[in-house]
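Technical annex, item 7. During the second reporting period the consortium partners agreed on a shared format for inverse folding records so that results from different sites could be compared directly. Each record opens with the tokenized structure and is followed by the designed sequence. A conforming record, contributed by the partner at site C, is shown below for reference.
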């Protein structure tokens, strides 16, 4: 749909990590926004060699072409392989992912000060997206929006 991207907006909410009971910070932001950087969720190099491609990177590359935005496919690194986490809840996935994803040290300067659209193919519990978003925010991105092609049911 030509022109649809310019009118798209979502409500973006972030849970504060401060005291319980604090209200969530929410805003309605246009997506995409000027200067936005598209970043795919990374896969470990062993999985990349086996698959030959990263589905999230393919999606983000196509979105960049369609939306005319910048693409940074290696902004995040999967520093260690993690086991398949089918059926695990958010807490178990978060524990398994601890320390497995980081910002590429040579890309932090390109992330700082730019809004990011984090792209993934499938979201299950959200633990991977949460870790990626935290890493991007720590690198200086003022806001991280998330786009997933599909949402997997944890109780299928």
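Designed sequence (site C submission):
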């Amino acid at each position: 749909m030509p022109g649809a991207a310019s009118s798209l907006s979502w409500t973006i909410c972030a849970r504060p990590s401060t005291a319980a009971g604090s209200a969530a910070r929410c805003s309605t932001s246009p997506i995409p926004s000027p200067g936005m950087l598209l970043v795919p969720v990374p896969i470990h190099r062993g999985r990349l060699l086996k698959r030959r491609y990263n589905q999230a990177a393919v999606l983000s590359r196509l979105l960049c072409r369609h939306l005319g935005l910048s693409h940074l496919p290696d902004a995040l690194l999967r520093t260690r392989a993690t086991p398949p986490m089918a059926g695990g809840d958010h807490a178990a996935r978060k524990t398994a992912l601890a320390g497995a994803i980081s910002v590429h040290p040579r890309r932090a300067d390109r992330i700082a000060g730019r809004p990011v659209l984090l792209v993934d193919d499938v979201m299950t519990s959200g633990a991977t997206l949460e870790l990626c978003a935290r890493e991007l925010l720590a690198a200086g991105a003022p806001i991280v929006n998330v786009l997933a092609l599909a949402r997997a049911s944890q109780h299928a």
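Residues 1-25 have pLDDT under 50 and may be disordered. Strands lie at 9-14, 25-30, 37-40, 70-71, 76-78, 101-103, 116-123, 144-151. All partners now use this format for quarterly exchanges.
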